[in-house]
Amino acid sequence: MSDTSRRKFLAAAGIGAAGTVGLTGASASAAPATRNNDSAREPVVAFVEHPYADRVHLMVGEREIVVHDKDLAARILNAAGGR
């Protein structure tokens, strides 16, 4: 296979993969979140202890709840920005 053909193949494969990731992310985020009947009814503060951990500390009233959810931690960090 020539270099030109490899480049074209890799470029096409990269575009296809990026499109798949984009579609997957869009469909996952398009579904609205719903609240349960037993969800918190008072202010909640979320604390991500370490940017690479999966622990999210939730302060609810006088209680602290630790949730192990890497996706939730990543979404909170992404929403907070990189500054």
Question: Can you offer a commentary on this structure?
Answer:
It is a single chain. Strand 2 and strand 3 form a beta hairpin. By secondary structure, the protein is an alpha+beta fold. It folds into 2 domains: 31 residues; 47 residues, no CATH class. The longest helix is centred in the N-terminal third of the chain and has 28 residues. The chain is built from 2 helices and 3 strands, in the order H-E-E-E-H. It starts with a helix and ends with a helix. It is globular, with a radius of gyration of 20 Å. The chain has a 3-stranded antiparallel β-sheet, with helices on one face.
Mean pLDDT: 76
Q: What share of residues are in beta strands?
A: 15-25%
Nearest-angstrom radius of gyration?
20 Å
Poorly predicted tracts of residues: 15-27
Reported for the largest beta sheet, the result is: 3 strands, antiparallel
Number of helices: 2
**Estimated structural class:** alpha+beta
The main sheet orders its strands as 1-2-3
Number of strands: 3
Protein traits:
about 80 residues, alpha+beta, three-stranded antiparallel β-sheet, 3 strands
Q: What's the layout of helices and strands?
A:
Layout: H1 3-30, E1 44-48, E2 55-60, E3 63-68, H2 70-80
Antiparallel strand pairs: 1-2, 2-3
